[in-house]
UniProtKB/TrEMBL annotation:
Keywords: Acyltransferase, Transferase. This is L-amino acid N-acyltransferase YncA. Residues 5-172 form the N-acetyltransferase domain. It comes from Olivibacter domesticus. Signal peptide: none annotated. One of its GO terms (molecular function) is acyltransferase activity, transferring groups other than amino-acyl groups. The lineage of its organism: Bacteria, Pseudomonadati, Bacteroidota, Sphingobacteriia, Sphingobacteriales. It comes from the Bacteria.
Length: 172
């Protein structure tokens, strides 16, 4: 699978396609009966901020963008207020705003992106990934379980509780 996909930093030229993918994901979350991403977030301004700060990444296959993700090595302030306990207090990377194109169907795309973030983290000598999602985001919850993420408690974003997970990576 890795030979056909490439994860790279997003550029301003990618912004329209990223926003298109995010809108598809927002619509899918609504169809699934979820309240996640139904409040005007994420939006085009958030994508621009991700790109400007170097957080935005796109997954490409044959020159087409299939997925978007924000990969943040600067921490997440909301994670300091965890109701629960993290597995570690070490430096970590955060994954936010993972969205996969719905107009080009590929299997395992989100899982591949998550694994690529592990590779990015290890390359920077960061051995912890922290993530969160809505309680009703069954797709992401399945991916977290499949990839060995452990439930650590709840965090709060924009007034809502979200499930928080951590995965410790092996030093190579």
């Amino acid at each position: 699978m890795s030979s056909e996909f490439t994860l790279r930093k997003a550029t301003n030229e990618d912004q329209d396609r990223i926003w298109e993918i995010l809108q598809q994901a927002i619509k899918l979350r609504k169809q699934d009966g979820s309240s996640q991403w139904q409040d005007g977030y994420p939006n085009a301004g958030v994508v621009q901020q991700d790109i400007n700060q170097g957080y935005g990444y796109v997954l490409l296959s044959e020159g087409q963008i299939l997925a978007y993700v924000a990969v943040i090595f600067d921490g997440e302030p909301a994670y300091q207020e965890l109701e629960g306990k993290w597995l570690s207090n070490q430096e970590y990377v955060v994954i936010h705003r993972l969205a996969v194109a719905q107009d080009i169907k590929t299997k395992g795309t989100a899982t591949f992106v998550m694994k690529e973030v592990e590779t990015l983290a290890i390359a920077r000598c960061v051995y912890s990934i922290k993530v969160d999602t809505n309680f009703d985001n069954k797709g992401m919850l399945r991916i977290f379980e499949k990839l060995g993420y452990e439930y650590c408690g709840e965090v709060h974003f924009r007034g809502g509780a979200r499930m928080a997970f951590e995965k410790l990576l092996n030093k190579k």
